[in-house]
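U., I forgot to send this yesterday:
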Amino acid sequence: MEYSVLLSKLRKKGYEPQAYGRENPSQDLLSARIWEPDQTAFDPATLYLSSASLLPDPKLTDSFTIFCCGESADFSRYARSSFAVVYFGDSVSQAALFNTALESLSELQEVTAGMHLLVNALFSGNGLQYLTDTAARLFGNPIYVVDLQHKYLAMSAGLVPDNAFFNEESRSGYISEQGVAAIRANRLDEKIRRSNTAYYCFNDLAQKGMLVDAVRIQEIEVGHIMMLESEHPFRDYDADFFHRFSNLVSMELQKDSAYARNKGVMYSYFLSDLLTNPGQDASKIRQRLRLLGYNLKETFYIVAIPPAGHSTSDLQLNVILDCLIQIFSGSIYVIYEDTIVFFISRALFQNLSEYEMSRLSDYLSANQLKAGISNFFRQLEDMPYFYQQAVDAVRLGLKLKDPSPVYYYSDYYAYKMLETAESSGINIRFLIHPGLMRLYLYDQKKGTELIDTLREYLHHPGQTSLVAKDLHIHKNTLLYRLGKIKELIGCGLTEGEEYMNMNFSMMIMKYLGMM
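Result:
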């Protein structure tokens, strides 16, 4: 039994312990024995009992716990000791203190046996649901695991309370709006955080008592576990046992990268859930976000740094994430499948700002990173598709050897179409305009640069002075080249469709690495 839990139990029984020295609130005390004055070795998991007149030397460097009673001593000597001394007063007999402490510690045997079964369930590889079902059988009451966006991650099977409120929540998969309001009104989250063990409260909506505890990963709160007092009353040691179960739930959730790597940010789970489980009801998603205090705008973007975009960087994903959070303030973010993902919500005619993009570009360039940005979208249920757009933008940008640190999918959608056509068995090389192919072969044979000249001209159609300046040639030289180009491709480049055909063929050649 944890040191802090044991002291809490003794206080409830009327004792008034006074502690000195170095306490370890989470230290497990597994047995109790009378301290002997000639003892030199101490076990930190053993609770030692003594009279106040026969205490160990305060200079001992061992870490352990000793309870004492009887006539008071000079406890100031133990203020800086390496072990904890807990005094219970002069009206308490050593025998009574020993029996009371031993009675509390004996509960540990049942907890230990239960923990053995739960640890086996944890390492069975059967997941959170199996662990929760195993715990419910041991406690004999229904158990629920929820994340910080109030979504049920697991509900014990078999033990279902005969209660309309819980039945409705079970069907929806979320704590109801009424339930969330009750949690906030009772400041339940704050009370749980202040408690050293599972917190008992009465659920007015279910008309049942509940034990609730926080689930933490690396000291960061990521969810809660709840047990309803519906089948039989809680036992004295259930709170301590349930608190230990919360640690196992934490270990199970750490197997899921969404929990292990996102620092317990409640919105991260919303984003991860949408990416993992497409096709959800958008109205319910919006309602959950509203309950969590996040107000969506009219349009959305996905910014992603997939593995290909950070493989050459020496930075860890969490370091990159922390820096990007400062750039895209107010966004929702997650590390999903080794990809940093930002969900950005904007007003209908508000794009990502020049300031944001400038800072993003500078940071990415400085750290050899690549990011993709999706087209904007308006339906939350479409998020997985636009996430893929952002990932594809990076992949295609790298394939085409684009040196830019930021890839917009709007610049690469045609290449995605070519990739799709190629994967379906179409030889896209045969789609190149025959005139452009003649021009390509002419360059190969003559060593000329007519393809490059045409490409620059297509970028600035009709602006011969600008094209000549960019190519660092005289305007007359450009006009001569354009005449030769028009002769070889068989068209005068006077119509929009001709420009479109040439541009598209240029894209195919670039995609195939021909230029």
